């Protein structure tokens, strides 16, 4: 539009709706005290668009930025999808943010995904990870994310972290991986435990991962049970789950419990979590496990089948190594 206007000798203006309005419109689902910054730039909104006096005898072309927002391009498919792999990988990285000190997750969804001047990206200097995103009507934007950390607060316990966020088309749940000594203890507490009924009820599961997962359920109560999330999924929203390392194992456990909602799961560098029989019970889950051949984490515990004689005899050692015996 700008190029065509220039060729025709017209003066081009690119403006947001805030630079055209004389009052704030009603924004569906918007509860913030201030309007969205990109569409209502501070200092320039509700004042109209200025035209210099000497340009009043010129023809002007005013291009209006659509009132839209970004959402990640995620596809509810059983086939391997590169867009899913990229975007969920970035989300598995984003969840590592020290949200209490620097609300990076909140900023990504409430600022970057509403800024149409560029695609949302995760900046980790010197790297910048660009997402694949599509623009949608503003009413279909991401709602504020919910970040949970079992270690926060006066009654903090452990270090299980995750965030959930949803838009009109999907729900996203990202689990944090090994990022502290407490997480390392969880990793090496590999003594097998029987799978509870909500995870299939058959076979064994890595004891440390199960305890970390159940801690989150116990600490967050209704927030973790996500009644509103289940309502969203009942309304045919797609469910995407991701995690790296320990976060991948927790993501798999969560996907197993949410199996009825047909989740799409992407994990990165995930250690072994279920025994052979327990994994078979999750065969209907769409799970793409990304692993580097040289990554030792993906081969821990060292025995594929936690139902084996080795773990019957030595499984207790995992608890001792994990300092929880």
From TrEMBL:
Transmembrane segments: none annotated. It holds the Pfam family Lipase_3. SUPFAM superfamilies: alpha/beta-Hydrolases (SSF53474). One of its GO terms (biological process) is lipid metabolic process. Residues 173-303 form the Fungal lipase-type domain. Gene3D superfamilies: alpha/beta hydrolase (3.40.50.1820). PANTHER family: ALPHA/BETA-HYDROLASES SUPERFAMILY PROTEIN, FUNGAL LIPASE-LIKE DOMAIN-CONTAINING PROTEIN. This is Predicted lipase. It comes from Tatumella ptyseos.
